[in-house]
């Protein structure tokens, strides 16, 4: 079952948004935001937690903890219900649009009587938003971007949400003796960044299919049965996602898995290849087109081999040239999670992380990392209140802890802020003391493309900047990517020997797969990092690896698959 932490986090964030409208004290809303984030990333499930236990979580104070207990025990929070009653539903809908905060949503509702996304789009189009006091043309443009971002995400959810649900459902199905094999398929198996619905496959004897379907439609996750058949059923889950289950004969497992994994364009290519060989490919198997004799169906490997292809990883099945490359023997061996030797971007409670240094190190060592970098925020991100003294004290602490982790080399780093002109927080002599420096854009997101390009290239030309963190600064469904000349930045990354990060956080996955594929052609190197702010986040590298595979990266393209000696040489960056 899912942890209660995520539900509590969402509830507190909604209360924060409504407080931002009703309370004159901005610090009150900020307190709930910090508490929500802390509970969401807390390493223990808060279900059933007492006030005293909740008070042990950073940023959860004496006023917030009882409200959380009330929510955990009753499913609601009375103060939240009171604010919901005060604020029209239309305002709450507008608040969900990226670039429209609580204050703007209220102004739009009160001044323009706008209460839906559609009405807001019309108000932007006819100029009413730009003419509103305190808004203007730039704000109207940003709101348009926010509406576009929201519409593009539609009813899709982040891959982390979908994968967690799919694995829970499969765990329950696999407990049934009638289930012989099972897996998820579709866009989830291809590791797309967002998922519309979940496709599950189960191999079982035909006589057992009805019992499996009955059990599936009775699972605790099921909110509503959409369709209930003997071999296919669909449910709407309590998390709002549709899940489709198909029961197939074990004899055609491979063909069905290949077919239902997709993508549609990839399947068209493989079927065309079959036709040219006088074969017929479907979810039931590969057949002789003239005699209908079954040739292969049991495994995906057999299906691809009979078509004259090596097995193509699901993450590459997007019709981006993978079939052609496979026919020529040029399909790359993509990076695997087991290839990752370390994490080069993580945070502790010294800045905005939730866990102390030792706990983060213990979790990383449990994963089996050979090296691990602590990269807390630098001082120009003012809210973190970093100082030279704090950073140097952490370095001393880290060095002292090395003896406790003999199998994992501890690296001291920082996440620098890329200033509007491309500068970073510390001078060269201070930066020289770090093992690794990640540099990221955290502000001034609306510079012109030319300014932003110069800014990022200037940062990469700094000999102490090793990795550009979350390179487009996007947050999926909430903040659009910053705008700059990608071609120029990719060329500069290759020229300066600066790695680009694939940020594994499910709401970032930045760079995205198409950009990874593009940058790879320039010879760019990459770092697959978690940007962890909690021990819970350290397992997120699986999502970054999925994105890297979709971008055709090999282990050699990724600097944190390298040996420590090779990595250290790269981090010298010619100095």
Structural commentary:
- The structure is a single chain.
- The chain contains 25 helices and 17 strands.
- β12, α19 (388-401) and β13 form a beta-alpha-beta unit.
- The protein has 575 residues and is α/β, with parallel strands linked by helices.
- The chain has four domains: 4-152, Orthogonal Bundle (DNA polymerase, domain 1), CATH 1.10.150; 157-248, Beta Polymerase, domain 2; 258-327, Beta Polymerase, domain 3, CATH 3.30.210.10; 337-572, Alpha-Beta Barrel (TIM Barrel).
- The strands form four sheets. The protein has a seven-stranded parallel sheet.
- α14 (253-261) packs across α16 (300-306).
- The chain starts with a helix and ends with a helix.
- The protein is globular, with a radius of gyration of 26 Å.
- 43% of the residues lie in helices and 14% in strands.
Fold topology:
Layout: H1 4-22, H2 26-40, H3 51-54, H4 64-74, H5 78-86, H6 89-95, H7 102-112, H8 117-125, H9 128-131, H10 137-153, E1 157-158, H11 159-174, E2 181-184, H12 186-189, E3 194-195, E4 197-203, H13 209-216, E5 222-228, E6 232-237, E7 242-248, H14 253-261, H15 264-276, E8 279-282, E9 285-288, E10 294-296, H16 300-306, H17 322-327, E11 342-343, H18 357-367, E12 371-377, H19 388-401, E13 409-417, H20 428-431, E14 436-440, H21 449-460, E15 467-468, H22 486-496, E16 499-503, H23 513-520, E17 526-529, H24 541-550, H25 564-572
Parallel strand pairs: 4-7, 11-12, 12-13, 13-14, 14-15, 15-16, 16-17
Antiparallel strand pairs: 1-3, 2-4, 5-6, 6-7, 8-9, 9-10
Helix pairs in contact: 1-2, 1-5, 6-7, 14-16, 21-22, 23-24
């Amino acid at each position: 079952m899912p942890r209660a932490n995520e539900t509590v986090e969402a509830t507190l964030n909604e209360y924060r948004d409504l407080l931002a409208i009703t309370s004159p004290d901005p610090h009150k809303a900020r307190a709930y935001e910090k508490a929500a984030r802390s509970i969401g990333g807390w390493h223990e499930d808060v279900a059933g937690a007492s006030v005293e236990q909740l008070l042990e979580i950073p940023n959860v104070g004496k006023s917030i903890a009882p409200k959380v207990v009330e929510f955990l025990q009753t499913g609601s929070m009375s103060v939240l219900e009171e604010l919901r009653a005060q604020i029209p539903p239309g305002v709450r809908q507008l608040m969900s649009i990226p670039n429209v905060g609580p204050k703007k949503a209220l102004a739009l509702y009160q001044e323009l009587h706008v209460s839906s996304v559609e009405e807001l789009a019309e108000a932007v189009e006819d100029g009413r938003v730009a003419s509103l006091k305190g808004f203007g043309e730039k704000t109207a443009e940003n709101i348009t971007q926010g509406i576009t971002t929201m519409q593009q995400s539609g009813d899709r959810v982040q891959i982390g949400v979908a994968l967690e649900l799919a694995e829970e459902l499969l765990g329950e199905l696999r407990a049934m003796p009638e289930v012989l094999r099972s897996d998820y398929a579709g866009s989830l198996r291809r590791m797309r960044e967002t998922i519309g619905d979940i496709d599950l496959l189960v191999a079982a004897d035909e006589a057992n299919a009805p019992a499996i379907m009955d059990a599936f439609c009775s699972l605790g996750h099921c909110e509503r049965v959409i369709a209930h058949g003997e071999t296919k059923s669909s449910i709407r889950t309590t998390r709002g996602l549709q899940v489709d289950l198909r029961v197939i004969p074990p004899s055609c497992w491979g063909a069905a898995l290949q077919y239902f994994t997709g993508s549609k364009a990839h399947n068209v290519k493989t079927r065309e290849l079959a036709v040219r060989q006088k074969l017929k490919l479907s979810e039931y198997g590969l057949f002789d087109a003239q005699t209908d004799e079954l040739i292969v169906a049991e495994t995906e490997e057999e299906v691809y081999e009979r078509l004259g292809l090596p097995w193509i990883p699901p993450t590459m099945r997007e019709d981006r040239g993978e079939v052609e490359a496979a026919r020529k023997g040029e399909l790359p061996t993509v990076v695997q999670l087991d290839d990752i030797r370390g994490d080069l971007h993580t945070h502790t409670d010294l800045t905005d992380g939730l866990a102390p240094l030792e706990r983060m190190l213990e979790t990383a060592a449990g994963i089996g990392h050979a090296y691990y970098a602590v990269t807390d925020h630098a001082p120009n991100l003012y809210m973190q209140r970093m100082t030279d003294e704090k950073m140097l004290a952490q370095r001393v602490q880290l060095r002292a802890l090395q003896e406790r982790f003999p199998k994992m080399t501890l690296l001291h780093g920082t996440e620098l802020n890329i200033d509007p002109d491309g500068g970073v927080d510390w001078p060269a002599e201070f930066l020289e003391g770090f093992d690794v420096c990640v540099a990221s854009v955290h502000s001034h997101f609306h510079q012109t493309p030319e300014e932003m390009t110069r800014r990022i290239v200037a940062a990469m030309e700094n000999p102490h900047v090793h990795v550009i963190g979350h390179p487009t600064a996007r947050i999926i469904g909430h903040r659009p990517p910053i705008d700059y000349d990608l071609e120029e930045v990719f060329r500069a990354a290759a020229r300066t020997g600066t790695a680009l990060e694939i940020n594994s956080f499910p709401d970032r996955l930045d760079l995205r797969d198409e950009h990874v594929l593009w940058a790879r052609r320039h010879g760019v190197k990459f770092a697959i990092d978690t940007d962890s702010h909690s021990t819970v986040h350290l397992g997120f590298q699986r999502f970054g690896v999925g994105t890297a595979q979709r971008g055709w990266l090999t282990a050699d393209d990724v600097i944190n698959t390298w040996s420590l000696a090779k990595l250290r040489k790269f981090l010298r960056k010619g100095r």
